[in-house]
Fold these 4 entries.
Entry 1:
Amino acid sequence: MIYTASSSRVRAIVPSDQRWLEMLDAVMRRMGIPVRDCILGDDRLVVTVHGQGGLPFSLVLEPSKRGQPAFREIGPFALSYHGKQQLDQPDMKVLLLFEKIVRRLGDRIPRKLKGFAALVHDIKDDPELVLRKLFPFVTVERSAGPLGDSVEVLVRTTSRCNQACPFCSAPTHSQPAEDIVLACARQAAELLPGATFSLTGGEPTLKDSFQAEVREALAQPGLREVQVQTNALAFGTRIDPRNLEPADRLSFFVSLHATDPATYDACTGTTGMLQHARAGIDELLQAGHRVTLNTVACSLNVDHLETMAGAIPAGTGGRPVEWHLSALICPHDNPAAEGVLVRYSRLVPAVLRATEVATERGIRTSSLLSSTHAAVPPCVLPQTHEVDRRWLLDENREVELPPDRMKAEGCRGCPENKRCPGVPAAYGRRYGLDELKPLVRGSGE
């Protein structure tokens, strides 16, 4: 059972076994701590407060570990603060008061900070931020396309996976319980109506509650689409996709990085699984589901893409397959991804040849610009892709360059600079940035 509150002052998601968080929140507010939100997730408690000068900072309570830097040790916990380099006197009083409250409550705070729960008081924030606060295992991606802006809520229902792709970009989170994921679907429909709700991981089919999570998301009319991101192995071995009724709002985004067994094994870190993945894709198609095949192009499969284009299934009946190709993201927490990078000057021609073959077979393919941070910079594409570039990038949205991305100095003069996500920092370190050339406004038009 989950306690849910939604009003003009607070939004809360608190399971019955986490009601201690409500008690802690009430005590802090009664003692004068200016609480913005209390978030329990990934084995730690984060309390964000209104700091001196209007700048918020966070009080972090987590299990103490040897060698872990902390402001204080409180029994089994380490207390620290984030968001400010140094606290002034009023903020330090808040930190010391929080320490005092934690000590007084003692065993009323669980020694192991497991599970997820949240109370968000500052709900004047934008709905996307509120959703991410309520559910720390969620990320939200926005993109622009020919039919307008779209919003995708990525829900990492588990970090477990039955494959070990060397280029995996999935962050690690604690596994949310079924009732938390169901609550997430309801809150996403309310806070971000019209969004796509994507169950991902890890491998979401590994959870016993997978089918219940899909059905609950589909039951929310506020969600435009429910997508399952999967490697399809489960549908070829143990889950009958006919248990999920085909619907225009339900789709499957299936990772298939090769159709050659040896290449597939190299891309997935497995042995002999391709037959099960192909069987799973066939089962999904025979059951009448919408399927998009997702291929991450890298050094392991770049020379195989054209052959792959002639071997992937084209779909069945009124459900044609779509093929989505993307470049590597190279997240900072997966250094192995850098080892399978391939230069864009080699990658782009290989992808274009493959998409030509797929198109001749009636398979719709996506542009290399359509994957937000898994896209390539528009300047590395031929000028014939100028039309795609205009409608795939939002003229009014500026992409913030995160620390793990890079751009060349000349990018400042490019008309796409505000929207282009640049290249992964690992790519820049390995190959340099000479391939990045500022586009000339009006070229190709």
Note: The mean pLDDT is 91.
Entry 2:
Amino acid sequence: MTEYGNYDYIISNPPYFKLAKNDIHTVSCSNIVDGQTNIYALFMAICSRLLQKDGQMIFITPRSFASGRYFQSFRNYLFRNVHLDLIHLFNTRKDTFSKDDVLQELVIMRMHPAGEISNITVSFSQGVGDLDNSYRKEYPASNIVDVSSSGKIVYLPVDKRDEEILNLFRSWDGNMEKYGIKISTGPVVAFRAASNIVEEQSGDVVPLYWLHNVVKMLCDHPINKKGKGQYIKNIPETKSVLLPNKNYVLLRRFSSKDDSSRLVAAPYFGNMSQYEYVGFENKLNYVYRPKAHLRRDEVMGLAALFDSDLFDAYFRTFNGNINVSATELRMMPLPPIQTIQEIGRKIILRNNYSIDYINNLVLDYFNIKQL
């Protein structure tokens, strides 16, 4: 039998700051959170057990809890105790939240513990100034958060185009694992390898790619940026962080809140250099096929999809912060591998790598209208 608390209403704007894995708060709530989380999640989790059966709790928090591995245990705990029935998304913090040092979108949520619900209302505004004219729509609850799923990701479509894109992605049953593809985080941690990172291409070195070497559809190397040596020594001490020089897709792990795109990807081909190994710094993710090679058309097709407005819009429905985690990308649905290869071949044959061409190609292929 479910146990209920003593409170009719809980209204909270909790503090927001990250907690280390060994923080006393994290350790004491190990049944709620896993790994590095945020203090606001603990406030929400504890309050979810303090409500009376007919109570309500209303929270204003960052939306970082909506996806990602670090909040998965928390989402499982939260949605066992309460049901979300209304959520409002603020797209900007320039007016209401300008004093807070939180580089992500904020949400107001209403939750209650009594029974399952059939619908969730989603509303959306840029800030408080346009609240009276905010977008508002009611969705089947499972379209926003499927509590029967393992991930329990919270999706927030903000217009009809987002709805169309969510429906398209839900129609795909492909993913990286199904296609024998993996994604990992770059193994070169700059401060640990600092003594072996060099500016010049001299001696036994291999190329080192940083976040700033990756722009949409282009791996730019070498470039001159102070403190970001473009090569790493190929010595026994670095062997564990160097990768075979073969075909990859590189993606930035971080973006600015105000970047036009959250996803920034580029194709990397093994024949771009004559080295046996290559280095990827820790602020990059890399996509690869273990013990084999990604085909050229697969590399180009995947990079184009990640760089498209289509995938960026889908990613924004569940991610409102500056992090682009390998976990989220690993779980992202993909179209059939033959479609990925076909898109890649079109780009290669056309020999046109401009973002406008690639974006139009992807949107037209899936019949999604331009913004």
Note: The chain has a mean pLDDT of 90.
Entry 3:
Amino acid sequence: MHDPAHLAALAAVHRRGSFELAAAALHVTPSAISQRLKALEERIGTLLIRRGTPCTATDAGLRLIRHHDEIVLLEQALAAELPQISHGLSHGPATLRIAVNADSLATWVIPALAATQGFLYDIVIDDQDVSQDWLRRGEVAAAVTAHPGPLQGCDTLPLGRLRYRATASPAYVARWMPDGPTAPALSRAPALTFSDKDRLQHLWVDRLTGGQASRAGFPGHRLASSQGFVDACLAGLGWGLNPEPLVSAHIAAGRLIDLAPDQPLDTALHWQFARLTAPALAPLTRAMQQAARAVLLHPQGSPHP
């Protein structure tokens, strides 16, 4: 049995990136963090943290961090179910680390988190196409992902489809796309891209133009903010794929134009979580499903019943 304080120190160093920040998070001195990590490495007999800027866990360190997270979640669930034996178990809310894409966070995830008591959340924001990697590495307990699985040791539940609309301001359309989103226009008109991982604009352009504009390439602004995408479209900075819940009112009011109303882009989302901690995550899982039903489309494209 490993000392929980040693495991907590390991997790904090990896997630905060330094001994000093880990010490601040755990309310101890950097020296105490260093001693705990050294004792754990000596006991395991292998390097657990790569010292650097930032400090990162080795594969063995990541496995121990996952073990630590699982213990904390399971102990909290046990203490809730059997308060008479809770003495000596972890007290207070457990920190739950999950991976979520920014657009889900901006449209439907927050109500689910707020509806679930007993957790402190550590949200990793990453694209839905790669969020599963965080779960595979054991760095999160659950993820909203575009991948249905299967992933070893995990369960997957379909959430629905987040619909995107290609939008731009009327002035932008008049300047850059007077004849609509044609391949020549899209190859010149500045687009909005969330990050290098964001392929939504490319997928939509490929579908609309048969790959013509995508092969030629198109200019774009990088803007890693869901609300920033909407604001940039409203201001005429560029065109972009925005979640329908964030832009439907702007489209209805004429502040934004849907570039191709018959060509929305739907992204299927799934809730994937470690099977071992599924009982502890059950309240959040129910809340995620309920919140998704209120906003997302049914997996087949129709609204949830």
Note: The chain is about 50% helix and 20% strand.
Entry 4:
Amino acid sequence: MITNLEQVLATNVKGMKRSAIRELLKLIENPNIISFAGGLPSPDTFPVTELKDIINDVMDNEAHIALQYGSTEGDNLLRTMLVNRYRKQGVDVSLENVIITTASQQGLDLITKIFVDRGDYIIVGLPSYLGGLSAFNSYGANLIGIPMDDEGEDPVIMEAKLKELQAMGKKPKFIYIIPDFQNPAGITMTERRRKEIIGLAHKYDVMILEDSPYRELRYEGEHQKTMYELDGTGQVMLIGTFSKIFCPGYRIGWVIGHPDVLDKIVVSKQATDLCTPAFTQRIVARYMEKGLLDKKIAQIRDMYKVKQQNMLKLLDEHMPEGFTWTHPEGGLFLMVKGPEHINTTELLKTAITEEQVAYVAGGSFFCDGTGKNTMRLNFSYETLAKNEEGIKRLGRFLKKNV
């Protein structure tokens, strides 16, 4: 081994950090620990039986496609199925607007790679998705955090930041938004707020990156149009994934955007992995073609709605005074906020050892170092019984230690 590895590492690598969530998952492999930490779908939602039949069919009839290299843009059948799906939802999209990625995380990485130089600015929410923040940090971006209210990011504060950057002769490369059941906060951005943010993007000539992994997992409230649809000019890039509505193990996502943007993503992806695996793409395409995805999403909604309502009820019953939490209309998460003086990072290991319950400390989601008194809870993975026992443990722990 060389004498000084740090001396030869790239500048971008030095800015990378391990995911707080991925590292935490290592600590909670003990089956006695109840975990609200991961963003994991319930294994009960995986379509095992249907997939066995489809996989056999693909191997019998399409092995020459599924086992071969594919195009960088993605399997045309899968792209066509996605186009048809979005069109049914009222979104004006065609094949040239869609590229398949190796899960949505690759989309975040590739988009950052083609837009961001070290020192460039990106506008994000306070809080925001840790995977997005990690991708942006890895390319040396400066993150500008915008506080959120019940409707999403505050447009008044956002415009003030845009004006401030403009006065410095700077323009953010894009505004990163998770408008539907935001991770980690669980907040859904109203259509009015979406239009306000789009208006600011047009006014200040800034792209928007819309990350929408949970959009189809709505349990209450009114359906909202995508920012991509509301914009209609190609200034919004939309990221989606099958991880939460099908199987995360397949690692398939997509980016929808203007053809000029997708052309740059294709070039960048060719230098990264050439193509997303043709095998998993073709299986998902055949699964959709059989009309199974809508049935599966309906089953997932029914299951998670019960878990969402149950967790909200449990929080009301067991959390101590001084704690509040968001009420998500869908998705997988909610965020708990405690008194200003507490630090959920410092409390976490004690919660694991004393009560065998885990959460994600909220500070990881705040790019400005705030949010130390918050935590993210996932309600989709554990069973109803474990959710109940876990919230009891968490409430008991907080009453004793806060």
Note: The chain has two domains: 5-46+294-401, 48-292.
